[in-house]
Amino acid sequence: MTEPKYIVVGNSSDDPFAIDVAFAMGQGEDVADLISMKRFANSEFCPRFISDEQDFSEIGNKLSGKSIIIVSTSSLVMSRQSLAMRNLMIARAAKENGAAEVILVEPDLYYSAQDRGPRPNLGKTEVERDLKDLKKFDGQLFTAKLYAQMLKLAGVDRVLTVHNHSFSVQAMFSEVFDGKFHNLIPYDIYVDYLLNSDIVDYEDAGEGLALCAPDKGAREFVKEMFAQLGLDKAKFVLLDKERISERQVEIKIHEESETKLEDIQGHDIVLFDDMVRTGSTVVKSCQLLKQVNPGKTVFALTHFYASEEGRVKMANTAIDEILTLNTIPTVLNRDIQGRLRKKMVVLKIEKWLALNLCRILNLPQPDMGDSLYSIDMSSKNTRWKRKIWLSEQLKALNQG
Q1: What is the tens place of the pLDDT at every residue in 329-345?
Q2: Of 62, 58, 73, nearest to 7 (Cα)?
Q3: Could you read off the pLDDT of 205-261 as tens digits, one per residue?
Q4: pTM above threshold 0.85
Q5: Looking at the domain 6-184, which fold is it?
Q6: Beta-carbon neighbour count of residue 203 at 10 Å?
Q7: Architecture category of domain 187-348+370-396 in CATH
């Protein structure tokens, strides 16, 4: 039997996300049987790719010709700093044991919030940086660049992430990794779910549905979502955000928005963004939209790492349902969801990620079955309760 060229590991031996990506790519061996996450008595980390104890012929060359894929997510028990250091050491261990290539798959790319420094040459932006923007980073470092350089130094050759929000980070990672940086945007996942679920209600051509961009940063993403949905009679609303302070924003209809508030009365509205932290923007936006009595307001986002403050804010009745991905797997924890579990649905993207990884690496595409993703929804969600009720009614009808 031919040994696989690509080996998938995580930065912890029992990470369900990494295990599911490996399985979706067709890897039969368990991650824990491929790499040992050793720790010395003094707590220092020392990963070891597992080899045959009796094999003295391939010392230091066990991974020769192989490509190592490190799947890196977040954890409730380890900080991102600890996990980042693990990534560096696993990459170096792979290269020092003969690996031909190391690929980091990090759906929520670490340190992306620290995407500029205090000088004009420390971070590219789409518009020229003014003194106010430079002062915002005065005294701190361009951490994302340091992380990229350390990954490269450790032996990482290619980086794959999901829906990264920062133009500066994307430009810098592409430069550091000589173009081998892939920012996957999950349009197809959102499109499939909106078209094939009951999260929103609209007519065949999209009449009664509106998509909304809460600020400038989300505008291009939502425009492309609108195009890929292909619903000619759906509407597209642009909002404008002005930040008053760290936790206060003012929201209004953007002057370039062709659709006005009164045009979406009675519509189901899906507001898209890449991430949420404090929840201030989305709550304010949905409160504005609620003024025209829409059918339903849905907040769709890729990276859910809301603070406790954010979760409290998003419990506001202005948001009817939250649709997110598991790029930060802790979102699946019901304690993390808190009261939001009543209106939250999570789309699990491991299969979709594995498929895209195979495309990028020119590998045979695995059979994904009926869907690119799986759905996680609390039994407290009203749509779940409705499905159970309908199922019971259908069962009773068939038995009768």
Answers
A1: 999 999 999 999 999 99
A2: 62
A3: 999 999 999 988 899 999 999 999 999 999 999 999 776 666 567 899 998 898 999
A4: yes
A5: Rossmann fold (3.40.50)
A6: 11
A7: 3-Layer(aba) Sandwich (3.40)
